[in-house]
Input
Amino acid sequence: MTFLAALRDTTRPDAPDALRIGDVTLSWSQVRDAASTFAAGVDRTGPVAVCAVPTMETVVAVTGCLLAGVPVVPIAPDSGPAELAHLVTDSGATSWAGPLRDGIELPVQSIDLHPSDPAPLPEAIDEATPATILYTSGTTGSPKGVLMSHHALRTGIEGLAEAWGWTDADTVAHGLPLFHTHGLVLGVLGSLHIGSRAVHTGKPTPELYAAAEATMYFGVPTVWTRVARDPESARRLASARLLVSGSAPLPVPVFERLRELTGQSPIERYGMTETLLTLSTRADGERRPGWVGLPVGEAETRIRGEDGSFAPHDGETVGRLEVRGPMLFDGYLNLPEVTAEVFTEDGWFVTGDLAVVDADGFHRIVGRESVDLIKSGGYRIGAGEIETSLLSRPEVHEVAVVGLPDEDLGQRIVAFVVTAEASDDLAASLVDHVATDLSWHKRPREVRFVESLPRNHMGKIQKKQLLEPAP
Ligand code: MLC
Ligand code: AMP
Output
C-alpha cells in the first residue's frame, strides 16, 4: 500500500484530462512522467519549499517530492518577508520550487511539464516518511509546521473515499489555495490517490465552479455562501454527485439555500491541518444542517467536560473534542513540548474545538475554546501573530485582534488599536502592513481605534468583551 496509488499504477487506462489547472491539462501518464522526472532530479538533502501558486507546476513539484520521499513545504505565494523567513528557516528547506521570491537564496529545482526523456517512477517509499510540512497558525507565536506522513495522507483519503463513495469515476473540482490541507491534500493529491479526475478552477468563484462539470465540488463555507447568492451558477451544480463543505462552519441558511437551488443537501465534514478529516456526513447517510456527521474511516472521537469526564451523547452537552486515528500528524516540527501539550496522556489529540454528539453518534461543532484562533474565509489565523506584526509599528501602543462575525467570511479579522495618532491613513497603513509582512488573507479587515483595551484586575486583556457589539 502506498500513497498516490492511482498515479503509480501504470496499468490503469490513461485519461487525457486527468488533471486540469487553469488552462493546462495533463493526462495520467503526463503527470506521472513530469512528477517522476522532478523526483529523479530533486535535492534529497532536506525538505523542498514549494511556492504554491495554483498551477500545474506546483502540483508536479509537490507530487514529485512525494514520489521521491522528500518532505514538501507548501508556501503561500504571497507570504510576506516575516512569514517567508520563518517558514524557510524553521522547516530547514534546502531547495525551492516554483516562482522565486525576494530574499530566498535556496537553489531552485526546475519543473518540466513535458520532459523529453522522462525518468522512471521511483520505488515505493516507507509510509512512515514525512510527506508534507504544512504551516498553520496557533493561538500565539509563529505558525507551526505540521508533519504529515504518507501513511496519514493515505488513510485519511481512503476514509473519505469510503464515506463519500469517491471513486475513479468522479471528477473533483475546486479553486482553493494549494498551501493547505483542503485544496492540496483533498482537492488534488486525493484524486491522484483515488484515480478521479481533478479540475482546479484557479479561483473559487461560483461561475468557475458552474463551468467545471465535475461530480464532486469542494469549498469552504465562504465559497458556498457566494454560490448560494448566485442562483444561476448554483443551479448548474444540480447534476453533481456531492457538494462538500468544510474548514469552517457552514451557516444553516446557506445549507438550506443550496438545497433549494441545487436539489441536494451539501455534505459537511470537519478536519484540521493536524488531523486531516475526522468527521463527515456520508454520501449514503443523513445530511443534517449544522452537523458534521460521523467519524471517518478509522478515526475515533470523544468529548470531555472541563473535569475530564466524558460528556453524554445527548446532542446537548458540550465538551472538548478529542480525536485519534491513523490520519493524525506526527507532531509539530522542532516543537516536541508543544506537541506533547496537545495530546492527552492516553494519546488523544485535543482539537481545541467544542462539540456535542447525539445518540446516533452525529457531531456538531459549537465553537472553539480559544478566541485567539480565528477562521476567516476558511483560513486559520492566530490573533497573536497579527498582534506581533502590528506591534512592530511604532504608532501602535497596544493591540488586541479578534474575529468578529461576518456573513461572507464567517469571521473577519478586527484589530483594536491604542495609539496617539488615530487616523484613516494610519488604519489603512496598518492593514497594508500585515498584508505585506505576513500575507494578504491575514490582514485585518477593520482597524478600530480605542482609548484603552478592556483588562481584568490582573491586567489581562478581556477579548470576550471585544466580541460583544458596541452599545
Ligand atoms: C487577493 N487579492 C489580492 C491578493 N490576493 N490583492 C493584493 N494582493 C494579494 N496578495 C484580491 C483579489 O484579486 C480580489 O480582488 C480581492 O483581493 C478579494 O479576493 P478573494 O480571493 O475573493 O478574497 P477573499 O474574499 O478575501 O477570500 C475568500 C476566499 C478565500 C474564500 C476566496 O478566503 C479562500 O481562498 N479561502 C480558502 C481557505 C482554505 O483553503 N482553507 C482551508 C484550510 S485547511 P477582486 O478585484 O478580484 O475582488 C482546513 C482543514 C479542513 O481547514 O478541514 O479543510
Ligand atoms: P485548519 O488547521 O486550517 O485546518 O483549521 C482547523 C479548524 O477549522 C478546526 O479546528 C475547526 O475549528 C475548523 N473547522 C474545520 N472544519 C469545520 C467544520 N466543518 N465546521 C466547523 N469548524 C470547522
Summary: Residues 136, 181, 246-249, 268-273, 292, 351-353, 365, 368, 375, 380 surround adenosine monophosphate (ligand 2) (CB under 6 Å). The radius of gyration is 22 Å. The chain has 14 helices and 24 strands. Residues 1-171+182-200+293-367 form a domain with the Rossmann fold fold (CATH 3.40.50.12780).
